[in-house]
Amino acid sequence: MNGWQRYRNYVMGNTIGPIEPNLKDLSFWRDYLFANVLLYSIPVSLVALVPCLVAAYINGQDVLACIELFAFCTMLLITFTRRLRLQVKKTFLVVLLYLLAVSLTVFLGTFGPGVLYLWAVTIFTALTFSPKKAYLTVAVNCVLCLGFGVVIQYRLFDLPLLELYSTSGWIVFSVNLLFLSLITSALLDLVFTGLQKTIVREANLKRRLKEKGKHLGQMLITVKSQNEELERFAYIASHDLQEPLRTISSLVDHLESQNQGRLDEPSQMYLRFLRQSVHRMRALITGLLEYSRIGKENALEWVNCQTLLETVLADLDTFIKEKEAEIQADNLPQLQGYALEIKQLFQNLISNALKFQRPGTQPCLQIKVQKLDKHWLFSFIDNGIGIEPKFQDKVFAIFQRLHPKSRYEGTGIGLAYCRKIVELHGGKIWVEPNPEGGSIFRFSLPLTKEQCLPEA
C-alpha cells in the first residue's frame, strides 16, 4: 500500500468510519463528500500556501499571512483529530471559510478571491449539511455585505484598499452575490429533495424485492417438497395401491371360474360392475402416475412436429377409420421440447376431437400453426359437441368430467395432461368456441432465440 492510499484510508476512516452503511442515503453521500474535501484540501493547500505567504510578506500584509497560516493549521486539526464529531468538523470548516472570505475581501478587495469564498460557503453548506441550512449562509452573506457597505460608506477603518470601493459598486456586487447564493440554495434544495425521494424509493423497492425473493425461495422449497411428496405418492400408487386391485381382480376371476353356470343374473351383474370398477380404478391410478412423471424422464431435444403428427395419426388409424374422420393439418414446424410429451399432447387433443363428435356429423379436425413474435400458436379446430363457456376454464382440471361415463369413456385426466405438458414447455393452453360449431383448442410453444430472429 503506497503513502497516498494510507493517507486516504486514514482521512476517510477518521471522518466517516471504516464501515459503509447498507443504505447509502444523502446523509452518507454528504459525509462522503466532506471527507473528500478534507482529503484533497491538505495537499492542495500546501501547494498554494507558500506562494500566498511570500506574496503577503512582500506586500507587507503580515496579518493576512498569519490568517492564512492559522487557516491551514485549523484544516490540519479538522482533518486529523479524532476527538471532534463530524458535524463539529463541518461547522469549523464553514467558520474557517467565512474567516478567509472576510480577510481576503478586506485586504484584497473585490478583485481578490474573498467574494468567491462567500459564494463557496453557500455551496459547501448545501452539499455537506443540507440545502435548508444553506439559506442560513444566504442570511450571513447578507449581513456581511451590509457590514462591508457601512464600512465603505462611512470609512470606519483606516484601510488603504477601502479607497478602491464605492458604495454604489458594492451594492451592485452584493446584490449579485446574494442572488447567486439564493438561487444556488433553491436549486440544490430542489435537486437534493428529488434525489432523497429517489433513494428512498429505490431502497424500499430493494427491500420489497428482497422480501419477495425470500418469499419466492420459500415457495420454491414448498413446491419442491410437494413435488417430492407427489413422486412418493405416485410410487405408492403404482405399487401399493395396484396390489389390492390385483387381489380384487383375482377374486372376481376366481368367483366366476368356481361358480360358472351357478350364479344368478344379479350376482353376475354385480361381478361385472366390480370388474368395471377395478378397471376404472386401475386406469385412474395409471393416469395419475403418468401425470406425475411428465417431463421427468426425458431431455429437451429438437422435435419435428410434422413427423410426430404422422406417427400419432398412424397410431390412431383404426380409431380414425372407425369414426370416418377427416383430418387436415398445416406443415408443422420443428421446435425444442420433450418429444414423448408433445406426442401425447397431440394424441390427446386428436382423440378428444374424435371422441366428442356431434351426433350425425362426420368428425372434421383442422390442425393449424402460426409463427408469432415469440412463440408458435397451434390451433386444433373440431366440429364436435363443443364446450359451454362456463366450463371452459374447468376442463383442464385433473379428473374433471363434463359428461357421464356411460356416454363418453375416459378418466377425465387427458386435458390435464395437455395443460401440464404445455406449461412444462413454457406455454399456455386454452379453449374457445368454434363459431361454426365445436371447439378450438389453442396452445403456444416458445420459439428458440434463433427462431425469434427475423428472416433475412
TrEMBL record:
- The UniProt record lists the EC number as 2.7.13.3
Residue limits of the Histidine kinase domain? 236-449
Q: Which domain of life is it from?
A: Bacteria
What InterPro entries does the record point to?
Answer: HATPase_C_sf, HATPase_dom, His_kinase_dom, HisK_dim/P_dom, HisK_dim/P_sf, MASE11, Sensor_kinase/Photoreceptor, Sig_transdc_His_kin-like_C
Regions that span the bilayer: 33-56, 62-80, 92-109, 138-157, 169-192
Carries keyword Oxidoreductase?
no
Read off the Pfam families from this record. Answer: HATPase_c (PF02518), HisKA (PF00512), MASE11 (PF20969)
**Keywords from the named record:** Kinase, Membrane, Phosphoprotein, Transferase, Transmembrane, Transmembrane helix
Judged by the first EC level, this protein's enzyme class is: transferase
Keyword check for DNA repair? no
Q: What catalytic activity is recorded?
A: ATP + protein L-histidine = ADP + protein N-phospho-L-histidine
Among the GO molecular function terms of this UniProt record, one is: phosphorelay sensor kinase activity
The entry's protein name is: histidine kinase
Q: Which organism is it from?
A: Rufibacter quisquiliarum
